Fold:
Amino acid sequence: MNSVTHSAILSADLIHWLNPILDASHTRNLKTSPPDSECFPGTREEPIREIIVWADCGEMIYVIKRSFSSKSELSATPPSSPPPSFSPLFDRFDINILMPTSTTKKTPHIYWLHGFAGCGKSSISLAVAKAFAGSGRLLASFFFFRGAGDRSTMRRFAVTLASQLVAALPATAPLIQDAVRAQPGLLTGEVALATQLDLLILSPFQTVLNRGILEEKCDQGPFLIIVDGLDECEDKQGVEEFIDHMLAFFKEHPSIPLRLFVASRVEQHIRERLEVDEVQLGNLDSHSPHKDIEKYLQASFQAAAKRDRLIRAYVRARGEWPAKSDMHQLIDHVGGSFVLASSIFKFIVQPATTDDPLTPMERLPQTLTMNGLDGLYTQTLARSQHLPHFHNIISTVALLMRNLSQLPI
Structure:
């Protein structure tokens, strides 16, 4: 048996031991494992650009914004410029490089992207994860989701990250295996989360790094771990322990080529720990999404018109639909929420039924008077009352002693 085959078998066996959550990473099936959210092509480019620059630039300080008009100009920049590994991500997101000055300040190892519910944080996390997975520098990703079993707790968080680390860096497999043999409690959650993070993730990564195995990869830039929806984790104490431990780890190892990207809503137990000098803050609310939402809605309505003969007939007879005034009202009505924009669009273009025979053109004005998602859900439930067992199902859910997980719903 050659070393490659032996390593593959070891990694497969170890991942089986670790028993990770299989639908918690960026590769999950979005239709069955929410959040089902991806950036619409050409949207959210500015916040994604800022995150990529942070993750790529090492210890540079970014003061002066400069755009490169071509790859040739990028390649002609002086040695103090970002490394060539930038180029694949620059090509994709049209990066504007922020050049270093004589002022020196280390880039924080942690980036916290925060914003209100539905503003697109998970979509951005997914886009960043895919970009860095493509360059081989994503160590792991975890997308918390409230009410989704272990995805809403810290119980299998560390082992899930560790299993992805093994897949990303197979050289860590024997190190993690030795740790598990020495402390079986690592697999059962009977040791502290900080210990799990150290022995299953951070220490194996450091050991492989110190052996020089990652030298070529490190030339491309730091590695990245992505944790999305941290506010969705119901274990607040575990969240606090995780943040505290990572801050302490990076303070002890200031030069380690590792970055942690966190996305969440602004919850007190998270905010009071991440609003510190050691964390770079990204306020998604400061990035106006209106143009991105307009781009999404225009493309979606155009696609719907190609599929729906009623819309096509209306456009031929009356002209553009939605009209510019209606589109502007709709964009203002959703208030910067991609979730609301997507939900309202689906409601408008859904097929007519016996109980709701309205056309998309008739349904659009209705949505402009709805009170956000509450009004939308009221309309949706109202048009579903004819379905078999509707009343039995709704009354059962309403009378449950404990909230039902969102996945069964």
